[in-house]
Every structure is written in structure tokens, then in C-alpha cells.
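ok so i was messing around last nite and threw this chain in just to see what happens. nothing serious, just curious
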Amino acid sequence: MTSLTKISLIAPCGMDCGICMAYVRDKNKCPGCRARDRNEPVSVARCKIKNCATFKRSKSKFCFECETFPCGRLKHLDKRYRTKYNMSMIENLKTIKTIGIRKFLANEKVRWTCPDCGGTICVHRGYCYNCGKKYWDIPKVWEEGR
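result:
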């Protein structure tokens, strides 16, 4: 469960890499969007948000610090995640800005921890990677605490 408490696993776009399918899987595990690894996945290396010239020029840690927040790319990504995975990166970023990264991480840990076994609930698959309990077919129990 330590993956859900690392600040370095929160991507500039607000994605919590600790709940990403590529991070929680066992084979070809992604190091996260902020990793500086020569073997980083192509999706991370080519990420249009992470490599945004405006974002890089501003030397910001998160997109909410950018003058163009929320930009079209982030809005597009956010819409896809809200529709498919019931998670908003823009909302994550606003929360980080409002309450700070440490409180955000504490909320994420509660939100994405399986109450049955303590494993990580994958945002992309909708089930606990530890015990296999499916969450997308039941009411949004993790939303109650938000």
C-alpha cells in the first residue's frame, strides 16, 4: 500500500500513478509519470501534457500552476477519465491546490484502498489488484468520504 502515499506518483496532470493499471500490474511495471528512467514506457515519454512547452517553461510541478490551466489537452483527458473511470484529473488538481498534496494523498489512500484486504483498487480495471473484488458494479462507496 505504500504506493498510494508517494508524492512522486502524482503526475503533473493530477493522475495518481499509484492506482494506474500500468503501475499496479506485475509485469512490465511502469515507474510512474515523474520517473526519470531510460526505460520509461512510450506513453510516458510521449505524454503531451508532461512534455507541454508551456508547462516546462513555467517549471511547475502541477498543471494547476500553469497559466493555461485547464488547457484543451487536460480537458480532453479529464473528460475521458470522468466518463470511463469516474475520476477527474482536473478535480484532483483543484483539490491539491486547495488542501495540499499531503492531505490529497491521504484522501487517495482511503478512496483507492480495498476495504476488504487493504490492496489497491485499479482506476482502469475497477477491481482490487490484491483480492480481485470488483468495484465498478457497486455504488461508489469511495465517493462518500470525498
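not much to say yet. Confidence is low (pLDDT under 50) at residues 138-146.
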